[in-house]
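Final report, results section. Input specification for complex C-07:
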Amino acid sequence: MEGKKILLGVTGGIAAFKSISVASLLTKLGANVRVAMTESAMKLVSPKNFHEVTKNPVTHDLWKETDLHPHIDLANFAELVLIAPATANFIAKMAHGIADDLLSTTMLALKSNTPVLIAPAMNTRMLEHPATRKNLEILKSRGVKIIEPDSGLLACGDIGRGRLPEPQDLVEFVQNFLRKKTLEGKQILITAGGTRERLDSVRFLGNPSSGKMGFALAEESAARGADVVLLTAPTFLSEPRNEKIKTIRVESALEMHDAAIRIFPNVDAVIMTAAVADFRPSKVFEGKIKKSKDNPDEKIKIELVRNPDILLELGTRKTPNQVLIGFAAEMNDLETYARDKIQRKNLDFIVANDVSKSDAGFAVDTNIATIFFRDDSKIDLPLMEKSELAGKILDQLQKIFEGGNSI
Ligand code: CTP
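Structure output:
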């Protein structure tokens, strides 16, 4: 983002006030932000706000006597254009090449390789009107990136799709867009969450895995250009809104096993973060297990049988071009167990963490991991957010794809 010249176009949607924070966040990240507003946007927010946060002049007038070719100057300046919010009217003008004010004229004057991102924001009915849908399709076909609107309470009081995403989310979208696409063309299967093994119709054996590590890896892989299948056991996390991530939800180890085996031949790498139950009840009671009314000392026995080891099975099917990455949560003898798993499961590397530490492992946002490789080398990583750890893991995966030494 440092030094990146971004043209932020603000059109007359009620969410225009959020764009002030967008301009501010982009500027704080080091971008050189210039803002162009439409007349309608000027009725909702003041150019002074944008001037204050970007320290750059804010323009809206195509006919100012002192500026000879303001649309050409802006178009030459822009290395990336973000229109947020983008109204139905402005989207229609872009789709049809109408140039009747500074911002719309600038859009026509952009260099052909300048990326354009737009964040539509409007009432749900306007968004879903065939005219708007068609206009968005036209823009998509020209390579414009559409930042999908959020759902929720709209300014008009309706509830539905059409909210401008929060400024932080818009800025993250821009950041991801600008990232180098080092995993472009790669298909990656990532498993996440903790499997549930049914006892009866209302109960299950489970584990506290939150799915955060797998979801972070899916987001990071997609940001680096990979196509991701996120195969997840139940979690409270919401499905990633990213067209490069296909989410498949399963419940039990057997369901995850079947899906993973089916998908495996089509992927270049598997990252197996899921906490898969090693055992399941040998029989699932139909209905609900009822306690007896007159025997407080009653005991019931549940027999457990082994689940397949998914990673082990993938390891036997792996072709030389496929990469397998495992996770290991251990309470003791981390290195011994981790190295044993690399060999037994035919892994390229394993990410191991000591779950006896409070900042590592299940259901927390951070992790302290060591990556062990086949060649006896290892990388000790300090305490970090799971999103940052995802990046470190993918750096190693990329090195393997590039055929280099994985350390
Ligand atoms: N794994 C799997 N299928 C299973 C169990 C585990 O694919 N039935 C995967 C996990 O997703 C993880 C790795 O294998 O990537 C963890 O291996 P392992 O430590 O063998 O799982 P545990 O059951 O915790 O091992 P152990 O019984 O040795 O404690």
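The chain has a mean pLDDT of 93. The radius of gyration is 26 Å. This concludes the modelling results for the funded period.
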